[in-house]
Amino acid sequence: MEFSTQDMKRMSQIAKKMEGKSEDQVVRELAEMIKAGQGGLTPQKAEQMFQMIMPMLTNEQKQKISKLLKELWD
């Protein structure tokens, strides 16, 4: 599946809205947004995007993404 520049911009905008919140709160809110289809992402599309960027992340970032992915499918 291809990801457009618009998809990446949406994710950036969502990330900005999460500033100042706890990690657990951000994970929950992002998972709920994705499950609800907000931001133009489905759980499947979000997982594909995260899997694509995982090799470029630090171990700490990978753990956070893994936490979000787990929340998406719970």
Summarize the structure in words:
The structure is a single chain. The model has no long low-confidence stretch (mean pLDDT 86). The protein contains 4 helices and no strands. The longest helix has 15 residues, at 59-73. It is mainly alpha-helical and 74 residues long. Helix content is 70%, strand content 0%. The radius of gyration is 12 Å and the shape is globular. Helix 2 packs across helix 4. It has a domain at 23-73.
Taken from the alpha-carbon principal axes, the silhouette is globular
How is the quaternary structure best described? single chain
Number-wise, the strands total 0
Instruction: State the order of secondary-structure elements, H for helix, E for strand.
Output: HHHH
Report the span from N to C terminus.
23 Å
Overall structural class, as computed from helix and strand content, comes to: mainly alpha
Number of helices: 4
Residue runs with pLDDT of under 50 for 5 or more positions: none
Report the sheet with the most strands, covering strand number, pairing sense and barrel closure: none
Mind telling me the C-alpha Rg? 12 Å
Proportion in β-strands: under 5%
How is the topology of this model organized?
Blueprint: H1 5-17, H2 23-35, H3 43-53, H4 59-73
Helix pairs in contact: 2-4
Question: Which tags fit this structure?
Answer:
74 residues, mainly alpha, 70% helix, 0% strand
Task: Report a brief summary of the structure.
The protein has helices at 5-17, 23-35, 43-53, 59-73.
